[in-house]
Amino acid sequence: MDATSDDARQQADVARPRVRVFINYRRDDTRGEARLLYDRLVSRFGAENLFLDVCNVQPGMKWLEEIRSQSGSCHIFLSLIGPRWISIMRAREQAALDNPEEDHVRSEILRAIKPNSGIHVIPVLVGDNMSLSKKDLPRSVRALGELQVAYVRWQSFEPDVAFLISRLEVIAREQPATPLAAVTARQEEQHSATIPAGTGVVVAAPDAAHYEDVLQQMVDEGNVVPFLGSRMTARRASAGEGPPSLPNTEELAEALAKRFGIKQAEMDLPEIAERVYVIRGRPDLYRALRHLLTMDCEPGPVHRFLARFPQMLEDLGLEKRYQLIVSTSFDTVLERAFDDESEPYDLAVYMASGPDRGKFVHMPFGGPPVPIDDPNSYTKLPIGLDYELQRTVIVKIHGAVDGAVGNYRWKDNYVITEDHYIDYLSKSPAESLVPVQVLDKLRESHCLFLGYPVGDWNLRVFLKRIWEGTLGARSWAVEPDPDVLEKNLWTQANVDLYSADLGDYVGLLRERLRKRTPESAGP
Fold this sequence. Notes:
By secondary structure, this protein is an alpha/beta fold. It contains 20 helices and 20 strands. The chain is 43% helix and 15% strand.
């Protein structure tokens, strides 16, 4: 190739708008049109700035993760809507009631239209005589009906595509920053911004200094223990949108109350579970819990972030760190996230039933389960004397759904009723319950509580057992909508409380982590 050709190519590259475009479509509705539109847009914006699954997902890629990553990091999101789009959407929603399965097209749209996503969403009506009315849309994607549409009609295909390209060029000039970077910049500008919580109390949003404090301890020191609480997802009952997710504590309480005809009033989950246990019997309670807690659901952004954390550090050239992660949930979505990443981990599960009732059982990676008969002397967890971990350890403090490792099986293993929590609290001291390696690591670390509503008395039980009310190292709690009680309780416990959507929170944490280098890390 001669120099003239090189110059011409470089000039063309400079002239191209720097904007990433994601094309969302249904294969049974606009497959051919999506590919045709992609080909037209590539000639103007370049293949490196366009994403269409059939063109960009290559053999060996984790296709679902690639699509999610691309749809969340684009500038412009084109939602192609053809003649069958609404009927397919409604049919998928109806089918999900009996057979929960993620509708990936819908999930992509929900991520894009989320407030403050920074993504320009354009509904593109494909076909002649198409229209889009908000009242005709499924509730979960009704926000599309509030947006200005574009058209791709067979009768006027070329001028329609030309108009769409001109609109994309305008957006490219107006917003050159990536969506996540834009959100980060806004948060840095609002360093002292505050968010009113559910009862009117003002709670700070995480700022640049907070993210740096957390990453310094996570990356440079390896000294953060994430605590995953019961509010890892938004309430589906009120939101009515998003892919299937396991119920949080409020939803679980409501489901049990409805199933057994209990007038819920102000009762919480342990009280409702206690009533079912006493009035209807143990089998009925556990049968209901198995039904409610064994849905096949995708891990959320927090689970994914934690599962990828060790490899992310290695990819950045940083020292690989492993974490002790404490979970209050009964489900297995966190373990599934680690399995998806092929990231090894050990489990330590509290047994609320069976022959090892009242003990933790250690399930080493690749080894047989070991009941921890003497917590104060057990030292086989991959935690060194310096509190560094050789492998991730997941500690499930309230039990787990029915499962098995080799020949070791557990069933009806839940700390959920009032009596369960009373038994849990009555063992004294903590050394008689919690393995000493876990106990020492907790007491020597900073903790990051995510979706952990400390206002729920049953979730304060474990904290009181370990720290007797006040944490030794300064720690942090992040909740989507904390109230005044939670703010006061966290303050008393030496924990700084922040208000943020958990998905956004770990997204910004991940973005900041990607900017760290061996040179920028601490000694």
